[in-house]
Write a structure and sequence with these properties.
Layout lengths: L4 E9 L2 H13 L5 E3 L26 H14 L3 E3 L3 E5 L5 E5 L3 E10 L3 E3 L5 H9 L3 E2 L2 H4 L7 E5 L3 H11 L4 E6 L8 H8 L4 E5 L1 E8 L4 E8 L4 E6 L2 E4 L3 E3 L30 E3 L11 H22 L1
Parallel strand pairs: 1-2, 1-6, 2-3, 6-17, 8-15, 9-10, 9-15, 10-11
Antiparallel strand pairs: 4-5, 5-6, 7-16, 12-13, 13-14
Protein backbone atom coordinates (compact mmCIF):
# COMPACT_ATOMS: atom_id res chain seq x y z
CA UNK A 1 0.00 0.00 0.00
CA UNK A 2 2.81 2.42 0.89
CA UNK A 3 4.24 2.01 -2.60
CA UNK A 4 1.08 3.54 -4.09
CA UNK A 5 1.04 6.61 -1.83
CA UNK A 6 2.17 9.85 -3.45
CA UNK A 7 3.38 12.71 -1.27
CA UNK A 8 2.85 16.26 -2.49
CA UNK A 9 3.42 19.71 -1.08
CA UNK A 10 0.22 21.29 -2.43
CA UNK A 11 -2.82 19.43 -3.73
CA UNK A 12 -5.56 21.40 -5.49
CA UNK A 13 -8.92 19.65 -5.78
CA UNK A 14 -11.02 21.04 -8.61
CA UNK A 15 -10.41 23.40 -11.50
CA UNK A 16 -12.25 26.54 -12.60
CA UNK A 17 -11.08 30.11 -11.92
CA UNK A 18 -10.36 29.40 -8.23
CA UNK A 19 -8.39 26.21 -8.77
CA UNK A 20 -6.35 27.44 -11.71
CA UNK A 21 -5.57 30.78 -10.04
CA UNK A 22 -4.47 28.96 -6.90
CA UNK A 23 -2.28 26.77 -9.10
CA UNK A 24 -0.66 29.78 -10.81
CA UNK A 25 0.28 31.35 -7.48
CA UNK A 26 1.32 28.07 -5.87
CA UNK A 27 3.50 27.12 -8.83
CA UNK A 28 5.23 30.51 -8.87
CA UNK A 29 5.95 30.03 -5.16
CA UNK A 30 7.71 26.72 -5.87
CA UNK A 31 5.02 24.68 -4.09
CA UNK A 32 4.91 22.16 -6.97
CA UNK A 33 1.11 22.00 -7.04
CA UNK A 34 -0.76 18.96 -8.29
CA UNK A 35 -4.25 19.82 -9.55
CA UNK A 36 -7.03 17.32 -10.21
CA UNK A 37 -9.62 18.80 -12.56
CA UNK A 38 -12.66 17.04 -11.15
CA UNK A 39 -15.75 15.71 -12.89
CA UNK A 40 -16.25 18.94 -14.86
CA UNK A 41 -12.84 20.25 -15.97
CA UNK A 42 -12.98 24.02 -16.00
CA UNK A 43 -16.02 24.12 -13.73
CA UNK A 44 -19.36 25.85 -14.30
CA UNK A 45 -17.85 28.44 -16.61
CA UNK A 46 -17.46 25.81 -19.32
CA UNK A 47 -21.26 25.95 -19.74
CA UNK A 48 -21.14 29.71 -20.42
CA UNK A 49 -20.88 30.76 -24.05
CA UNK A 50 -19.87 34.38 -23.51
CA UNK A 51 -17.98 35.92 -20.60
CA UNK A 52 -17.91 39.70 -20.92
CA UNK A 53 -17.44 40.79 -17.30
CA UNK A 54 -14.01 39.32 -16.53
CA UNK A 55 -11.38 42.11 -16.44
CA UNK A 56 -8.92 42.17 -19.32
CA UNK A 57 -11.08 40.59 -22.03
CA UNK A 58 -12.07 43.68 -23.99
CA UNK A 59 -14.08 41.75 -26.57
CA UNK A 60 -15.25 39.03 -24.20
CA UNK A 61 -14.31 35.36 -24.24
CA UNK A 62 -16.12 32.04 -24.14
CA UNK A 63 -16.10 30.18 -20.84
CA UNK A 64 -14.31 27.11 -22.26
CA UNK A 65 -11.66 29.29 -23.96
CA UNK A 66 -10.98 31.16 -20.71
CA UNK A 67 -10.52 27.89 -18.83
CA UNK A 68 -8.12 26.57 -21.49
CA UNK A 69 -6.07 29.76 -21.13
CA UNK A 70 -6.06 29.58 -17.32
CA UNK A 71 -5.01 25.94 -17.41
CA UNK A 72 -2.20 26.72 -19.86
CA UNK A 73 -1.02 29.57 -17.64
CA UNK A 74 -0.96 27.29 -14.59
CA UNK A 75 0.95 24.64 -16.54
CA UNK A 76 3.41 27.21 -17.85
CA UNK A 77 4.65 27.70 -14.28
CA UNK A 78 4.86 23.98 -13.61
CA UNK A 79 1.46 22.90 -12.26
CA UNK A 80 0.86 19.18 -12.70
CA UNK A 81 -2.72 19.17 -14.08
CA UNK A 82 -4.35 15.75 -14.00
CA UNK A 83 -7.65 14.12 -14.91
CA UNK A 84 -9.57 12.60 -12.01
CA UNK A 85 -11.54 13.62 -8.98
CA UNK A 86 -11.33 13.25 -5.22
CA UNK A 87 -13.66 10.55 -3.91
CA UNK A 88 -12.61 10.39 -0.24
CA UNK A 89 -10.58 12.41 2.25
CA UNK A 90 -9.19 11.97 5.75
CA UNK A 91 -8.21 15.20 7.47
CA UNK A 92 -8.17 13.73 10.97
CA UNK A 93 -4.38 13.73 11.32
CA UNK A 94 -1.46 16.02 10.56
CA UNK A 95 -1.14 14.40 7.14
CA UNK A 96 -3.97 15.30 4.78
CA UNK A 97 -5.04 12.15 2.96
CA UNK A 98 -6.99 12.29 -0.29
CA UNK A 99 -8.08 9.41 -2.52
CA UNK A 100 -8.47 9.97 -6.26
CA UNK A 101 -11.00 7.88 -8.22
CA UNK A 102 -11.39 5.55 -5.21
CA UNK A 103 -7.89 4.18 -5.75
CA UNK A 104 -4.85 6.46 -5.75
CA UNK A 105 -3.88 7.75 -2.28
CA UNK A 106 -2.20 11.13 -1.91
CA UNK A 107 -0.66 12.59 1.24
CA UNK A 108 -0.54 16.39 0.99
CA UNK A 109 1.10 18.96 3.20
CA UNK A 110 -1.54 21.47 2.09
CA UNK A 111 -4.88 21.04 0.33
CA UNK A 112 -6.75 23.74 -1.59
CA UNK A 113 -10.40 22.91 -2.22
CA UNK A 114 -11.96 24.50 -5.31
CA UNK A 115 -14.70 22.01 -6.08
CA UNK A 116 -17.29 24.72 -6.73
CA UNK A 117 -21.05 24.46 -6.63
CA UNK A 118 -23.52 23.12 -9.18
CA UNK A 119 -26.57 25.11 -10.18
CA UNK A 120 -29.84 23.30 -9.67
CA UNK A 121 -32.02 22.97 -12.76
CA UNK A 122 -35.58 21.81 -13.28
CA UNK A 123 -34.42 18.81 -15.29
CA UNK A 124 -36.66 19.39 -18.30
CA UNK A 125 -35.22 17.98 -21.55
CA UNK A 126 -35.95 21.27 -23.34
CA UNK A 127 -34.26 23.25 -20.57
CA UNK A 128 -31.14 21.11 -20.83
CA UNK A 129 -31.18 21.36 -24.64
CA UNK A 130 -31.10 25.17 -24.69
CA UNK A 131 -28.61 25.21 -21.84
CA UNK A 132 -26.25 23.12 -24.00
CA UNK A 133 -26.80 25.23 -27.13
CA UNK A 134 -26.26 28.45 -25.18
CA UNK A 135 -29.50 29.61 -26.74
CA UNK A 136 -31.27 31.21 -23.80
CA UNK A 137 -31.15 29.14 -20.59
CA UNK A 138 -29.01 30.40 -17.73
CA UNK A 139 -28.59 29.99 -13.98
CA UNK A 140 -26.88 33.36 -13.50
CA UNK A 141 -28.67 36.62 -14.28
CA UNK A 142 -25.66 38.73 -13.30
CA UNK A 143 -23.48 36.73 -15.72
CA UNK A 144 -25.85 36.62 -18.67
CA UNK A 145 -28.56 39.26 -18.17
CA UNK A 146 -26.65 41.76 -20.30
CA UNK A 147 -27.35 39.67 -23.42
CA UNK A 148 -31.12 40.15 -22.97
CA UNK A 149 -31.29 43.94 -22.88
CA UNK A 150 -34.69 45.28 -23.94
CA UNK A 151 -36.02 41.74 -24.34
CA UNK A 152 -38.60 39.66 -22.45
CA UNK A 153 -37.39 36.93 -20.11
CA UNK A 154 -38.77 34.39 -17.63
CA UNK A 155 -37.22 33.49 -14.30
CA UNK A 156 -38.25 30.62 -12.02
CA UNK A 157 -37.65 30.69 -8.29
CA UNK A 158 -39.07 31.95 -5.01
CA UNK A 159 -36.15 32.69 -2.70
CA UNK A 160 -33.98 35.74 -2.04
CA UNK A 161 -31.63 34.90 -4.91
CA UNK A 162 -34.52 34.59 -7.36
CA UNK A 163 -35.94 37.94 -6.25
CA UNK A 164 -32.54 39.59 -6.43
CA UNK A 165 -31.92 38.23 -9.93
CA UNK A 166 -35.43 39.17 -11.10
CA UNK A 167 -34.87 42.71 -9.86
CA UNK A 168 -31.47 42.83 -11.58
CA UNK A 169 -33.03 41.63 -14.85
CA UNK A 170 -35.80 44.23 -14.57
CA UNK A 171 -33.18 46.98 -15.02
CA UNK A 172 -32.06 45.45 -18.31
CA UNK A 173 -35.09 43.76 -19.80
CA UNK A 174 -38.35 45.06 -21.18
CA UNK A 175 -40.37 42.54 -19.16
CA UNK A 176 -39.56 39.90 -16.55
CA UNK A 177 -42.07 37.15 -15.79
CA UNK A 178 -41.41 35.40 -12.50
CA UNK A 179 -42.76 31.88 -12.04
CA UNK A 180 -43.28 30.87 -8.40
CA UNK A 181 -44.14 27.22 -8.03
CA UNK A 182 -46.17 27.54 -4.81
CA UNK A 183 -48.63 30.06 -3.39
CA UNK A 184 -45.99 31.97 -1.42
CA UNK A 185 -42.43 33.24 -1.67
CA UNK A 186 -39.56 31.74 0.33
CA UNK A 187 -37.74 35.06 0.16
CA UNK A 188 -37.48 37.62 2.94
CA UNK A 189 -40.33 40.10 3.09
CA UNK A 190 -38.17 42.98 1.91
CA UNK A 191 -37.08 41.10 -1.22
CA UNK A 192 -40.63 39.94 -1.94
CA UNK A 193 -41.90 43.50 -1.69
CA UNK A 194 -39.13 44.76 -3.94
CA UNK A 195 -40.14 42.53 -6.87
CA UNK A 196 -43.84 43.16 -6.28
CA UNK A 197 -43.27 46.91 -6.54
CA UNK A 198 -41.20 46.68 -9.73
CA UNK A 199 -43.45 47.66 -12.64
CA UNK A 200 -41.97 45.45 -15.34
CA UNK A 201 -41.93 42.28 -13.22
CA UNK A 202 -45.01 40.09 -13.59
CA UNK A 203 -45.33 37.47 -10.85
CA UNK A 204 -47.28 34.28 -11.54
CA UNK A 205 -47.88 32.29 -8.36
CA UNK A 206 -48.70 28.57 -8.42
CA UNK A 207 -47.14 28.11 -11.84
CA UNK A 208 -44.93 25.24 -12.97
CA UNK A 209 -42.63 25.33 -15.99
CA UNK A 210 -43.81 22.74 -18.50
CA UNK A 211 -41.41 23.32 -21.39
CA UNK A 212 -38.85 25.75 -22.78
CA UNK A 213 -39.84 26.39 -26.37
CA UNK A 214 -37.55 27.47 -29.20
CA UNK A 215 -36.47 26.94 -32.78
CA UNK A 216 -33.84 24.36 -31.89
CA UNK A 217 -31.11 26.93 -31.35
CA UNK A 218 -32.62 29.78 -29.33
CA UNK A 219 -35.49 30.18 -26.87
CA UNK A 220 -38.67 31.85 -28.10
CA UNK A 221 -41.14 31.22 -25.26
CA UNK A 222 -41.85 29.29 -22.07
CA UNK A 223 -44.88 27.07 -21.51
CA UNK A 224 -46.20 27.23 -17.94
CA UNK A 225 -49.00 25.48 -16.08
CA UNK A 226 -51.35 27.35 -13.77
CA UNK A 227 -51.78 24.75 -11.04
CA UNK A 228 -54.92 26.43 -9.73
CA UNK A 229 -56.86 26.38 -13.01
CA UNK A 230 -54.90 23.62 -14.81
CA UNK A 231 -54.52 26.00 -17.75
CA UNK A 232 -51.34 26.07 -19.83
CA UNK A 233 -50.02 29.39 -21.10
CA UNK A 234 -47.21 30.38 -23.48
CA UNK A 235 -45.06 33.26 -22.28
CA UNK A 236 -43.01 34.99 -25.01
CA UNK A 237 -39.36 35.08 -23.92
CA UNK A 238 -35.87 34.97 -25.36
CA UNK A 239 -34.28 34.02 -22.04
CA UNK A 240 -35.12 31.51 -19.31
CA UNK A 241 -33.35 31.96 -15.97
CA UNK A 242 -33.35 29.26 -13.30
CA UNK A 243 -32.87 30.55 -9.76
CA UNK A 244 -33.76 27.60 -7.55
CA UNK A 245 -30.44 27.35 -5.78
CA UNK A 246 -26.99 25.81 -5.97
CA UNK A 247 -25.53 22.68 -4.41
CA UNK A 248 -21.93 23.01 -3.27
CA UNK A 249 -19.77 20.05 -4.27
CA UNK A 250 -18.56 19.40 -0.74
CA UNK A 251 -20.11 16.11 0.39
CA UNK A 252 -16.80 14.27 0.78
CA UNK A 253 -15.54 16.90 3.24
CA UNK A 254 -18.51 16.94 5.65
CA UNK A 255 -16.92 14.61 8.24
CA UNK A 256 -13.87 16.85 8.64
CA UNK A 257 -14.70 20.42 7.64
CA UNK A 258 -17.28 22.80 9.08
CA UNK A 259 -20.07 23.38 6.59
CA UNK A 260 -23.05 25.69 6.80
CA UNK A 261 -26.60 24.32 6.67
CA UNK A 262 -26.58 24.37 2.86
CA UNK A 263 -23.24 22.59 2.57
CA UNK A 264 -20.89 25.49 1.83
CA UNK A 265 -17.48 25.23 3.50
CA UNK A 266 -17.02 27.73 6.32
CA UNK A 267 -13.83 29.76 6.11
CA UNK A 268 -12.30 32.02 8.72
CA UNK A 269 -13.50 35.52 7.66
CA UNK A 270 -10.94 37.42 5.62
CA UNK A 271 -8.98 34.25 4.83
CA UNK A 272 -9.30 31.01 2.90
CA UNK A 273 -8.59 28.95 6.04
CA UNK A 274 -10.96 26.18 7.10
CA UNK A 275 -11.24 24.65 10.58
CA UNK A 276 -8.48 22.17 9.63
CA UNK A 277 -4.93 23.55 9.60
CA UNK A 278 -3.36 23.24 6.17
CA UNK A 279 -6.70 22.91 4.34
CA UNK A 280 -7.91 25.96 2.42
CA UNK A 281 -10.91 26.77 0.26
CA UNK A 282 -11.49 29.04 -2.73
CA UNK A 283 -14.37 29.79 -5.09
CA UNK A 284 -17.98 28.66 -5.01
CA UNK A 285 -17.41 25.78 -2.58
CA UNK A 286 -17.44 28.51 0.08
CA UNK A 287 -19.06 31.48 -1.67
CA UNK A 288 -22.86 31.48 -1.77
CA UNK A 289 -23.13 35.27 -2.16
CA UNK A 290 -21.15 36.47 -5.19
CA UNK A 291 -20.46 33.35 -7.29
CA UNK A 292 -18.53 35.20 -10.00
CA UNK A 293 -15.46 34.11 -11.93
CA UNK A 294 -13.48 37.13 -10.78
CA UNK A 295 -14.28 36.60 -7.09
CA UNK A 296 -13.47 32.90 -7.42
CA UNK A 297 -10.10 33.79 -8.92
CA UNK A 298 -9.46 36.20 -6.06
CA UNK A 299 -10.15 33.58 -3.40
CA UNK A 300 -8.00 31.10 -5.31
CA UNK A 301 -5.14 33.58 -4.99
CA UNK A 302 -5.86 33.93 -1.27
CA UNK A 303 -5.83 30.15 -0.81
CA UNK A 304 -2.42 29.79 -2.45
CA UNK A 305 -0.94 32.63 -0.39
CA UNK A 306 -2.42 31.21 2.82
CA UNK A 307 -1.04 27.76 1.94
CA UNK A 308 2.40 29.23 1.22
CA UNK A 309 2.45 31.00 4.59
CA UNK A 310 1.27 27.85 6.34
CA UNK A 311 4.15 25.86 4.83
CA UNK A 312 6.64 28.59 5.81
CA UNK A 313 5.38 28.45 9.39
CA UNK A 314 5.96 24.68 9.47
CA UNK A 315 9.64 24.95 8.48
Amino acid sequence: MSDTIEKVKCLIIGSGPAGYTAAIYAARANMNPVLYQGTQPGGQLTTTNEVENFPGYVDGVTGPEMMIQLQAQAQRFGTDVRDGWATKVDFSGKTHKVWINDSKEIHAETVIISTGASAKYLGLPSEQHYLQTGGGVSACAICDGFFYRNQEVVIVGAGDSACEEAHYLSKLCKKVTMLVRSDKFRASKIMEERVKKTENITILMNHDTVEVIGDGQVVTSVKALNKTTNEEIDIPATGFFVAIGHKPNTDIFKDFLELDQTGYIKNIPGTSKTNVAGVFVGGDAADHVYRQAVTAAGTGCMAALDAERYLASMD
